[in-house]
Amino acid sequence: MMILDILFLIYRVACIFLPCLIYQFFTLRRKNENIFLSSMIWRWVFLFYLYLVIDVTGIGTLEDIFSYPELIRSEEINLIPFQSGVGMLNILNIIMFTPLGFLLPLIWKQCRNLGTTVLLGFEFSLMIELLQLFNRRATDIDDLLMNTLGALIGFLIWNFSQRIIHKVPKDIQTFPKREPQIYLLLSLAGVFFLFHWRFFLKLAL
Questions:
Q1: Four-CA torsion 144, 149, 154, 155, nearest 10 degrees
Q2: For the residues of 95-131, what is the DSSP string, one character each?
Q3: pLDDT tens sequence across 13-25
Q4: Where are the alpha helices (DSSP H) in 30-65?
Q5: Is the pLDDT of residue 96 over 80?
Q6: How does DSSP classify residue 34?
Q7: b/e string for 96-116 if b means 16 or more Cβ within 10 A?
């Protein structure tokens, strides 16, 4: 059982890392400059963070679409903000997306303005909420708002840290302009198309 758990963990991580690593491979082949190892390590840290977020939130997969008789259920969609008040779950959603708002400007120069980072946080959260329509998890506007707020707070923390140390890392290289957006899309697409958890469930039974 422990071996199966380890294989399942590797499989979950691979669903996110594999599409992004393939993208990195073809992108780096086109570059004619030396790539700093630290630049790649920070990108892998970012990908591991995306894995943690996607693993916690639980998005729908292609398999889920064909597993349930009803694709979308209106009773599991909440479009009224703070209908149930503000609780610990809201705070946890803020905390979960705060690293996103910090890592984006840290790694990518094009994300070093508030609007870009907050918009990416909003778009990433929105894609998660939409994909949750397919796996019987609640799609909640509160999650979208709190996640976006978390990205905002993360950016402010990054900005404050730069004011203190007065230094922006120069060894974190910028690749394609849309690189962060591509990672967000590939990580979600990797889980959506490649993750088939029921296969491992059958092996465990």
A1: 110
A2: HHHHHHHHHHHHH-GGG-SHHHHHHHHHHHHHHHHHH
A3: 999 999 999 998 8
A4: 37-57, 62-65
A5: yes
A6: P
A7: bbbbbbbbbbbbbebbbeeeb
